[in-house]
Amino acid sequence: MKILPRKFYSRPTLKVAQDLLGCFLVRKYRGKIWRAMITETEAYVGEKDLACHASKGRTPRTEVMYGEPGHAYVYMIYGMYHCLNIVTEKKDFPAAVLIRAVEIIDNPPLLNKERVGVRLNGPGKLCKFLKIDRKLNKWDLTKKDKLWLEHRGSKIKLDKIKKSKRIGIDYAQHCRESLWRFTLNS
DNA sequence: AGATTGATCCAT
DNA sequence: TGGATCAATCTG
To answer: Which nucleotide is nearest to A52 (CA to C1')?
Structure first.
């Protein structure tokens, strides 16, 4: 399976968010490898997007979004959950794709058979399951170590992508209306 | 609808 | 330094 190169991420975030659907998120943890298919994403695009953390400018927390694409932005939310984001666009343009849901697609050593095919819906849940926390913040996803992404096996049809409003951003005024949440229908 | 939980940010 | 806020999840 081919690893996604930096130039994949160095593109408009709305495109990357949709192209990530069906791709594989691979986690290597303590010598074991877990692989999951991405089924839901959300795009957060630039300082003008009031839902994007970078709308408040460059801070130590948002710094990674201003950096090179293809890195992980992992932050803690509500004191108990982590969310995994993929940095996109060119350097100095802050944007990222939030991974909202994945589906366990193979049978890695640590997983029971029952868990194959299970859909991990919710960014906090999938991070907990895949042992993703802030130690992986700023991680380079183009190296085949700890956490990386791979091309999807086959093409997906555009009509399988459902667009809807993003979740949990009621404060974002007009940006609430953007249909920047992408779900892969089975 | 409420409780949980702590990092982050901005105003003092 | 203090307090409001928060891209969530579970329970009932």
So the answer is: C7
A67-to-A30, A46, A176 alpha-carbon distances in Å: 28, 12, 26
Length A116 CA → C7 C1' (Å): 27
At A87 the pLDDT is 98
Is the dihedral angle over the CA atoms A110, A122, A52, A23 positive or is it negative? positive
Structure tokens of A88?
Answer: 């996109």
**CA dist list (Å): A62 to A80, A115, A136:** 19, 34, 15
Task: Residue A119: give the domain boundaries.
Answer: 6-184
Mean pLDDT by runs of 10 across the 186 residues of chain A is 95 98 95 92 97 96 97 97 98 98 73 70 95 97 97 85 96 95 91
The CATH code of the domain that includes A128 is 3.10.300.10
Q: What is the pTM of this model?
A: 0.94
Query: β-pairing, A81-87 with A32-45?
Result: unpaired
